[in-house]
């Protein structure tokens, strides 16, 4: 039995060598997180069907299933896939259900719309987003829609074409009279755009919003975004320029007004860096962003009236290449996946200042990419 003082952590990984990573893992790793100490205890490794490059993971809203992209690139296959796993309600172990094509290459992100009827996937290499219906038993059906992005940016090495990097529903954002629609945001690293859609849940189709995209500064390379849990603020992290842009929801669907752009790096840093993950604490008072190069977590205080950010400080990630991090639902612990040093490190979050303190617990996990916490 799992202790009442612990929750389950699912860790996505790279399992084989790609042009951008030397994947060394075997599949999806399951750990138990002790909420009183921050220690991670190994439970199992899920291998076999559906576990090739299971880099990014997400949970169904009711926590009954886990979905994992299989980040297959152009040199290794004709398309990427999304795999579905059932979660045992007692042990939290995974059982493979099925797998479907994402109709694009290098799927790097998956989310589930709030009612749990559709998975949304971003295909990085081909620059598209895909909608896959979820059946009653959690299995995936064939894709109901694919939207191909177009265009390019000024960086010839990274922006030669579109590169969808994230697609996510906006929680608690009603679509006016369109009660059967969910509001969806996506970011395109290749064209420097924040994209906006309505997902028609009756047909499984993505409809461009009134303002279908908002342009960021040229060469920004938007990677991920974070949505404030209580306020109409959206934060977009730039991979290529290591900045965060603060947006306020406009009056029209898909309309965003930028109010601030702030660096993720200390003023005196002069090396190469890539922005990676971004999260708002459950309280909405603090925001965190990870740097690969400076290898740190940037900490900001959030102005609750304007959404603007002020720097609190930077904390060492205690590893190399902090690809992803997550915060437990209570807002007490932060877990960092250091892809290039094969570690997951846990930190305490100070509830008054937002600062981080290492718990002293470091777990060895090969090529970790993503962490999803199951607290049900």
Summary keywords:
376 residues; mainly beta; single chain; 0% helix
Folded structure, characterized:
The chain has no helices and 30 strands. It has strands at residues 6-13, 17-18, 21-22, 28-34, 40-46, 57-59, 65-70, 81-87, 94-101, 107-112, 118-123, 128-133, 145-148, 164-169, 181-188, 193-200, 205-215, 222-227, 233-238, 243-249, 256-263, 274-280, 286-292, 296-302, 309-316, 322-327, 333-338, 343-349, 356-364, 368-374. The strands form 8 sheets. The protein has a 4-stranded antiparallel sheet with strand order 5-4-1-30, with no helix packed on it. Strands 6-7-8-9 form a 4-stranded antiparallel sheet, with no helix packed on it. A 4-stranded antiparallel sheet has the order 10-11-12-13, with no helix packed on it. The protein starts with 5 loop residues before the first strand and ends with a strand. The model has no long low-confidence stretch (mean pLDDT 94).
List the helices and strands and how they pair.
Elements: E1 6-13, E2 17-18, E3 21-22, E4 28-34, E5 40-46, E6 57-59, E7 65-70, E8 81-87, E9 94-101, E10 107-112, E11 118-123, E12 128-133, E13 145-148, E14 164-169, E15 181-188, E16 193-200, E17 205-215, E18 222-227, E19 233-238, E20 243-249, E21 256-263, E22 274-280, E23 286-292, E24 296-302, E25 309-316, E26 322-327, E27 333-338, E28 343-349, E29 356-364, E30 368-374
Antiparallel strand pairs: 1-4, 1-30, 2-3, 4-5, 6-7, 7-8, 8-9, 10-11, 11-12, 12-13, 14-15, 15-16, 16-17, 18-19, 19-20, 20-21, 22-23, 23-24, 24-25, 26-27, 27-28, 28-29
């Amino acid at each position: 039995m799992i202790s009442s003082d612990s929750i389950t952590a699912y860790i996505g990984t790279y399992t084989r060598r790609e042009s951008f990573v030397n994947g060394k893992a075997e599949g999806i790793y399951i750990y138990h997180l002790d909420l009183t100490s921050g220690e991670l205890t190994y439970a199992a490794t899920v291998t076999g069907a559906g576990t090739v490059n299971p880099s990014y993971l997400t949970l169904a809203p009711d926590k009954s299933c886990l979905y994992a992209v299989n980040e297959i690139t152009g040199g290794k296959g004709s398309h990427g896939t999304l795999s579905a796993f059932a979660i045992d309600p007692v042990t939290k172990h995974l059982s493979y259900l099925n797998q479907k094509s994402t109709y694009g290459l290098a799927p790097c992100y998956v989310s589930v719309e709030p009612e749990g009827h559709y998975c949304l996937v971003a295909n990085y290499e081909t620059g598209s987003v895909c909608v896959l219906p979820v059946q009653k038993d959690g299995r995936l059906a064939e894709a109901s829609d694919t939207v191909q992005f177009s265009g390019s940016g000024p960086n010839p090495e990274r922006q030669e074409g579109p590169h969808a990097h994230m697609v996510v529903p906006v929680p608690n954002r009603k679509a006016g009279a369109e009660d059967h629609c969910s509001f969806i945001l996506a970011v395109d690293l290749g064209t420097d755009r924040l994209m906006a859609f309505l997902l028609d849940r009756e047909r499984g189709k993505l409809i461009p919003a009134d303002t279908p995209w908002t342009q960021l500064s040229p060469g920004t390379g938007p990677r991920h975004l974070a949505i404030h849990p209580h306020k109409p603020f959206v934060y977009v992290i730039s991979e290529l320029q290591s900045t965060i842009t603060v947006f306020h929801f406009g009056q029209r669907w898909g309309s965003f007004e930028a109010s601030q752009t702030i660096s993720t790096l200390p003023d005196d840093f002069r090396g190469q860096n890539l922005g990676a993950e971004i999260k708002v604490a459950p309280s909405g008072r603090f925001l965190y962003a990870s740097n690969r190069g400076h290898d740190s977590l940037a900490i900001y205080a959030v102005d609750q009236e304007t959404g603007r950010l002020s720097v609190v400080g930077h904390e060492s990630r205690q590893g190399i290449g902090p690809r992803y991090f997550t915060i437990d639902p209570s807002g007490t612990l932060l877990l960092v996946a250091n892809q290039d040093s094969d570690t997951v490190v846990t930190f305490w979050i100070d509830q008054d200042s937002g600062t981080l303190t290492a718990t002293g617990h470091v777990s060895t996990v090969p090529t970790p990419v993503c962490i999803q916490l199951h607290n049900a």
